[in-house]
Structures are given as structure tokens and as C-alpha cells.
Amino acid sequence: MSVRPILRILEAHGGATLQDAGRHGAMRYGITPAGPMDPLAHATANRALGNPLGATAIEVGLGGLALTVEEAPLDIALAGGAFRIDCDGRPLPPAAALTLRPGMALRIRAGRAGAWCYLAVAGRLDVAPVLGSTATHTRSGLGGLDGRALRPGDGLAADEARARLGEPAALVAPWLDRSPEAIRVVLGPQDDYFAEPEIAAFLARDWTVSPKGDRMACFLDGTPLTHAKGHDIVSDGIAMGAIQVPGQGLPIILMADRQPTGGYPKIATVIGADLGRLAQAQGGTRLRFRAVSVAEAVAARRAEAAALEPAIALEPVIRTTFSSEFLLGRNLIDGVVG
Amino acid sequence: MAAPDPETDLRPRFLDAGEAALVVEFGARVDPAINDRVLALDAALTAEPPRGLAETVPTYRSLMVHYDPLVLSRAALVAAVEGRLTEPGAARGAGRRWTMPCCYDPAFAEDIAEVAELAGRDVAAVAALHAEAEYRVYMYGFAPGFAYLGGLPEALALPRRPSPRPPHPPGAVMIGGGLAAIGTFPMPTGWYVLARTPERLFVEGRDPAFLIESGDTLRFEPVDADTFSGLERRAAGGEIVARRAS
């Protein structure tokens, strides 16, 4: 049997977890599905390596992550927000693939935009599924590594590993350049708890993403909404992207680590194709909502699925931004101009 | 629009929760007749799921149907649901009946004195009232293995705490907001801890991992602290210590 590569976590500051497509089928027992905050970026990283779209990958938050590989080389792919990524000091594009070799250190740090970055491996991370999924839900301690975030020293072995990519290449995945357009929503299921002018205000107002968000929810700041029929409902189901409006009137968007049921009126639901775009909004980002039909939401979802159908092309990394170390190394800073 | 009333309005409402989840709402109240309709539809969809149905989540009054809209259209899902609706009052497959051992010893009933004071009764009367009632499992939610139970005697119908208490112990039997509940994993809670059961509603890897289903009925059987400890040891060893009556 060949030696298995082992990803070794060098630095982690909370917020990096293992996620597959989520723990589905047990929401009826109060089990949170978890899964990626940005499902499209997660799927893209996996697709770039020819993995099943829902394969287990590392989700990295704003706290960043550094890791290396031991025992054997391993192909990896990165996709998500505009994180600052470097391999042994060499900057990489935020969506890239390469062969990571023993001794190399890969660093992922928060960048100018985006809140989540995914690292997929060519092979299968050896993690025991819980209720059919490896997705980590830290609040209930289920999935991933002992139900917790990754820590320095953690080792993750990869089965059926491959290492054939070589030098870093950029993923040709234009769908990750997210548009700044309004976040699309389908109104309901409890839009009837709001008078018509309040729904209009919800759609017309600017909202600001609060920095206190996490995997469970995205909190919005702005002018509070008022309810027409009170803010308590008898609990019903919660879908990812549900925008609930509790008593104080500021919307809370329920994300991957949401509880499967809850008791506040939900004015609208973010469509599947815009969930990742919303999840990637850093604290302070201003956004608006636009109501669309179910048909339009399905069309957007279909377009997203179609984008991931063909293999993802890889482009050699062309240095368009140079680190100061690189420039000094080339003695270009002095301006040797004839 | 007024919420439908099962007495007068037989059709559920179909409410979109985005393009990949549909809420089939039978009513707006906590009511066994409404919950029966939810569970009957849930059973029918589970027995013969249309292709593209991902999972269903029954609640007090509605069924959330998660689906893949690229496989199953909303219209086809609505048609599948309508084809499986039963009339209100139609016999639903009777849920199972359980007897759950439960210890009201003050060491386990952390908040029973507080409840007694709020309810204007003594501690023994509160325990007796709670243990005499029969409870219906309406739904799970909030946390893994957190079961919401209806059937709490009116005398114990207190509002929830104005602010949460520290995490309850595992297997906490609680009351709040006119309902009862069993909390499997310790969590901060706005409910009052009235007792503890040694049974575990969720054990990863056990078959079944989840002991009781929505629609089941249960009673609490008072046991003393020694009996509790013995049962808890057996439960920790993987044994199911609740008894199934039928």
C-alpha cells in the first residue's frame, strides 16, 4: 500500500472546519445540517480536482489557516473569497490548484473581500461520517474532527490521493467573481406577518452586514422593520437563507448552522444561487434585496449547476501582483531603466 | 390572510421557503388534530417519496418539504402532496407509547422549587401533576434530540423564563410556555428543569439513533435517585431503559 499524504495543520485561529455537503435527513430530529457556507465555492474546489461536488473539504474563515503536507505530495484546490494565499511565500490567486509537497507551507489569510475559503484535496479525507455526513457542527459537537474546529497539530490523512498538478495554476471559475447586485429572495413563508409598506421597505432599504455573524446566522443592521401580526409564530421549519425578523425588527439570515425549526416570522428566503454571495459578505458590507419568483430562482440554480458541469480549466499563474520580497529578489525596485 | 382552521378549511396552505423548500401549513396552533394531519402527510410522503424530495421536517402545524427543484418542480411537488392528503380526523397510524423513567429528586429537579412557588403548589404536587399526564411528542427542534411535548397540565402552564438559565443537564425533563420538553444535550435554556430521565433520546451509532418519533405518546414514571443511577449506568452502556407499551 502506498503512503498516504497527511495534511498537517500548522496554524488555525478558530473558524476552520471540515465540511461536506451537509448532514441531511435528520433535521426531523433536531439535527442541524451544517455543510458549507458558500456551497458554490465548496463545489468549485472539489470540481477542480474531479471530486464529487459534495466531498469533504476544509472551510477556512477569516481567522485563516496554515498547513503543510507530510509523507507524500498531494494535489489541492482552493476557491472562495478574495483571500490572501501563499505557498512558501509565493502568492497564489484566491482560486488555484497545485501539488503541495512535504515541507511546503500553505498560508490562507483573510483578504480584501470574502469570508470563507475552501481547500479541497485530490482524494478522500479519512474522516468518519456521523449520521451519514462529515460536516462539522461545533455547537452540537457533531461531525468533522470530534465535532470541533481544526487546531494546530491536527492531521488529516487522504485516501486514494493524487499528485499530478505540479506548479500552481489558477482556476478558470468566473462565477466566483461575485456581482455586487442585490441579493435575490423569494418572499415568504411568513410575509403575511408584514404589511405591504414594510415589505416594500425591506426591499428598498440598504442593509449593513454586522460583523457579529457566524456559521449560524448573518445579522443585518439598518432601520428596524415592524410586524403587522406580532413576532411570535408557532415554530415551523427553517430553510438555509431564511430571513427571520425577531421582535426588535432587524433581519437575521439563517445559514448553514441554523436550527432546523424556529419561531420568528420569516419575511423572505435568499435563493440558493445567492447564498454563497451573501455568506462571503464581510462585516460592514452594504446590501439590498430584490424579490424574484420561484421560477427565476430555479433558473439561477440551473445556471449554477451548468457552470459546474464541464471540467474546470486551469491557467498557469501569471504574476500580475508582485510581493516586495519577489521584487527585491529581482532587483527591479531600483529601476534599472536604460 | 387568516390562518386556515382545520374545522372549516380542509386545504393546507403552500408557502415557499425559497425555491428548494415548501411549507405545507395545516394551521397556526399547537393542536393534536393539526399535528395529526402533518404527521399523516409526512408518513405518506416518506412511504412513497416523489423523485427529487430531499427530506421532510414535521412541526406542530406544518410540514417543511426540502426538495431539489432541478429534479422535482414546485407544481409536481404540490400535486404529489395533494394526492397524499388525508381528511382531517382520518386515522393516522397510531404512534408508539413509551414509559420514561424520570427522577424528581431535588438533586435532579433543579428548578422544581421555583416552579412550585410560581404555580402556588408544593413540590410533591408539582411532581405528581407532571407524572400523571400523558404527553404527545409534537416535534423535535432547537437541538439534536430536543423533543417538544404537548399535554402538560394547565396548572403547570408557566411562561418561559424571561432570560435563559445556565445549561440544563443531559436528559433534562423541562416545562415552559405551556409545553413540556426533553433536552438531550446540555444547552442554556429558558425552560424550567423539572426532572431528569436516564434515557437518551439520541445516541450516535445506536440502532435506532433516535428513540422516539413525532406522534409517539409518553408518560413519565417517577423513580428514586438510586434507581435513576442504576438506569443511567445501563443507558450509558447502550441499553434502552424506557419501556415501550405497545
TrEMBL record, chain A:
Gene Ontology molecular functions: ATP binding; hydrolase activity
Entry keyword ATP-binding: yes
InterPro entries found in the cross-reference section: CT_A_B, Cyclophilin-like_dom_sf, PxpC
UniProt xrefs under SMART domains: AHS2 (SM00797)
Pfam families linked: CT_A_B (PF02626)
Domain Carboxyltransferase residue range list: 28-307
Superkingdom of the source species: Bacteria
Keywords: ATP-binding, Hydrolase, Nucleotide-binding
Listed Gene3D superfamilies: Cyclophilin-like
PANTHER family: 5-OXOPROLINASE SUBUNIT C
Matching NCBIfam families: urea_amlyse_rel (TIGR00724)
Name under which the protein is recorded: KipI antagonist
Annotated organism of origin: Methylobacterium symbioticum
UniProtKB/TrEMBL annotation, chain B:
Keywords assigned: ATP-binding, Hydrolase, Nucleotide-binding
Entry annotated with the keyword Hydrolase: yes
GO molecular function per UniProt: ATP binding; hydrolase activity
SUPFAM superfamilies listed in its UniProt record: Cyclophilin-like (SSF50891), PH0987 N-terminal domain-like (SSF160467)
KW Transport (keyword) present: no
Pfam families assigned to the protein according to its UniProt record, in alphabetical order: CT_C_D
SMART domains for the chain: AHS1
Family matches, as InterPro entries: CT_C_D (IPR003833), Cyclophilin-like_dom_sf (IPR029000), PxpB (IPR010016)
Carboxyltransferase domain ranges (all copies): 12-212
Protein name (Swiss-Prot/TrEMBL): Kinase A inhibitor
